[in-house]
Structures are given as C-alpha cells and as structure tokens.
Amino acid sequence: MEVVKTISEVRAIRQKLNGAVGFVPTMGYLHQGHLTLVKQARIENSAIIVSIYVNPTQFGPKEDFAAYPRDLDRDLGLLWGVGADIVFVPSDAEMYPPGFSSWVDVEKVTERLEGASRPGHFRGVATVVAKLFYIVQPTRAYFGQKDAQQVAVIKRMVADLNMGIEIVVVPTVRESDGLAMSSRNIYLNPEERQAATILFKALSVAKQLWQGGERDAEKIRRQMTALIQKEPLAQIDYVSIADAETLEELNSIERPAVASLAVRIGKTRLIDNMPLE
Ligand code: AMP
C-alpha cells in the first residue's frame, strides 16, 4: 500500500494502472461502514484508491471541522487490512492553494434537507469530490447510502458534467442496535449513545408502515416525529419522506422514496435514512 500526499504523485501512479480503478473518498476516522465500501470496491476493480481528507469547505462556520476526529495511523492500518492499494492524504494547501476560486454548485437537489440545514455544505462536497474525481480518474466511485442526499447530489453532478464515472451505492452499515455507524458517534456519551437508537427506531416504524401498505407520507412523518419526541435527549432537525432521486417531499408514496431524518442528540447532530422501495 502506498500513501501519497500530493496530486502529482497520485497522477503518476494512476497513469501506470491498467484495468478498472475503484475510488473511495472519505474523511477518515474509519469504521466498518467505510471498510465495507473499500471491500466492495476491492471485489469489482483491479486497483483501489482511498482518499482521507477532512474537507474544510463542506463545514459551516459553527460546525465541527476543528473537532472532527482524526487518527491517520489507525486508518492506514485498517486500509492495509482490507487491501487498499493507494491512500491519498492531501493537505489543505494541496487541495485549496492560494487563489482558489472555482466551485461546483449542484442546484435543486441540494436545496432541501441537509442543504437547507447546512448552507454551503453540498457546494463544498461537490467541489471536493469533483476535484478528487479529476485527480484520481476512477472507473467507479463508492458512496454510502448513509448519506442519501450526498449520493443524489454526486449522481446529478456526474450526469450533468459528463464525468463518465460509475457511482456505486453501498447499503448503510449499522451497529447491532441499529445505530448507523458514523465517525461522529464518538461524540456521544453513554446516555446519548443509548438515546441515539431513536433514529433507527423511527426509520423502522416508517418502513413497517410502508410495508403494511401505508402510502400517505404525512401520516408516516407524523408517527416518526411522535416517536422521536418521546426521547428527551433528542431534538428533531427534520423528518422527511421524499422522492429517492430528487429528494422532493412526497404527499403520496407512489415511486421509490427515502425516509430520512436529522436529529440532535445533545450537541451531536446525527443523520440516517431508510429507502422505501
Ligand atoms: P465520511 O468519511 O463520513 O465522509 O464517509 C465516507 C463515505 O463512507 C461516504 O460515502 C459515506 O456515505 C460512507 N459511509 C459513512 N458511514 C457509513 C455507514 N455506516 N455505512 C455505509 N457507508 C457509510
């Protein structure tokens, strides 16, 4: 496994690779969710490139950029264990040199949910992912269903800008009690960690209602909301039943949909979702 810090090193290695290249962009502090993406990429490609970069431009001024957990040595050990070939660990100066002023702005699908709660977030995400795609030039790139709106944004960008990269979506990896694995779970104290199971419980209610034939989205949103409100440590940011592709809120669920939510548990903001399709 090679660990490289500069764009020119990645380009030089990439030029020598034959066959399909799988790419997994991450912000590090890796867990089984990330490693599942790498393992799937390992099966489907002849070389695997993983990036570890906590991208400052996708964090708002009041968000957790400085506090975001980082442990490069541990991450590299885990990536070695699942057979990554190249790990790209750029610095901020490498990604955003002085004078940087070009941005990728994906419209519409970014307006709701995470986009509404975190202004500028998806501009940062789309810009850094576009840059990484141009640098790595992968055949396929792997993203987690955990970040459903991010997947929708990246797919839109790849289609609109004719990037010609296959986007592979990997199901959400969960703890045994249903909590979606996330680098941010480390922020939760034991009491909050217990309360955080309310997200999966609410999504499970949505899935059960839908499987039972309920198609009235507002009824499902109401039941999810009522359940979460019973958890004293939880504060709802949003509860959504939306079109799986456009993320537009639905009245009636007649096409592939996604139940998603953002909930604050203490000071930690958690997101999760469940496809209804
Ligand atoms: P992050 O490091 O949080 O930017 O995540 C890097 C990639 O891993 C993104 O595509 C995430 O959607 C994905 N990911 C994060 N958590 C999970 C999870 N629990 N299950 C599956 N994929 C995940």
For the structure shown, list the relevant keywords.
about 280 residues; 6-stranded parallel beta sheet; alpha/beta; Pantoate--beta-alanine Ligase, Chain: A,domain 2; 3-stranded antiparallel beta sheet; globular; 2 domains; about 20% strand
| Overall CATH architecture of the largest domain | 3-Layer(aba) Sandwich
Residue share in β-strands: 15-25%
The 3D shape can be described as globular
Helix share, percent: 25-40%
- Total count of helical runs of at least 4 residues: 10
Please tell me how large the radius of gyration is: 19 Å
Distance between the termini: 39 Å
Note the quaternary state here: single chain
Query: Largest sheet, described in full?
Result: 6 strands, parallel
Strand tally is 9
CATH topology of the largest domain: Rossmann fold
Q: Report low-confidence residues grouped into runs of 5 or more.
A: none
Task: Write structural notes for this entry.
Helix 6 (121-136) crosses helix 7 (148-160) and helix 9 (197-211) packs antiparallel against helix 10. The chain has helices at 7-16, 32-44, 72-81, 92-95, 113-117, 121-136, 148-160, 190-195, 197-211, 217-229, and strands at residues 2-4, 21-26, 47-52, 86-88, 140-144, 166-170, 234-243, 257-265, 268-276. The termini are far apart. The protein is built from ten helices and nine strands. The model has no long low-confidence stretch (mean pLDDT 98). It is globular. The strands form two sheets. It has a six-stranded parallel β-sheet, with helices on both faces. Strands 7-8-9 form a three-stranded antiparallel β-sheet. With 277 residues, it is of the alpha/beta class. Bound molecules: adenosine monophosphate (AMP). The site of adenosine monophosphate (AMP) has 17 residues, from helix 2 and strand 5.
